[in-house]
TrEMBL record:
UniProt-annotated location(s): Cell inner membrane; Cell membrane
Keywords: Cell inner membrane, Cell membrane, Membrane, Transmembrane, Transmembrane helix, Transport
One of the record's GO cellular component terms: plasma membrane
Membrane topology note: Multi-pass membrane protein
This protein's record includes keyword Metal-binding: no
Species the sequence originates in: Chania multitudinisentens RB-25
Taxon lineage: Bacteria, Pseudomonadati, Pseudomonadota, Gammaproteobacteria, Enterobacterales
Record Pfam families: Multi_Drug_Res
Transmembrane regions: 5-24, 30-51, 58-79, 85-101
GO BP: glycine betaine transport; xenobiotic detoxification by transmembrane export across the plasma membrane
Name this protein carries in UniProt: Spermidine export protein MdtJ
Amino acid sequence: MIYWIFLGFAIVAEIIGTLSMKYASVSGGMTGHIVMYVMITGSYVMLSLAVKRVALGVAYALWEGIGILFITLFSVTLFDEPISALKVLGLVILVAGILLVKSGTNKARKQVSPRGDNHATA
């Protein structure tokens, strides 16, 4: 469970870091850059902790996909960036892809063979 929390923190840190990058480019101040460096670094640290128990493909799909989704939504609301039907379609397909990657990952199950040996199967 803690590894999923690490992944959640990694996603939040990535979103904040990327939005801070945009804020820094708009405002011209150093605060946005400092927040960006700290949050992006924290995001990678948390992601590296998460992948100790969360499958790499699932962790990366969630980290990047949810990040893109929320960064796009926040950039539209906070920075008045335009959104088109094509972008919305892309976000819908992105969410569908994340769900497919997540649902396609099964945990290993233990099976007992007729000889009594325990085997983990994927």
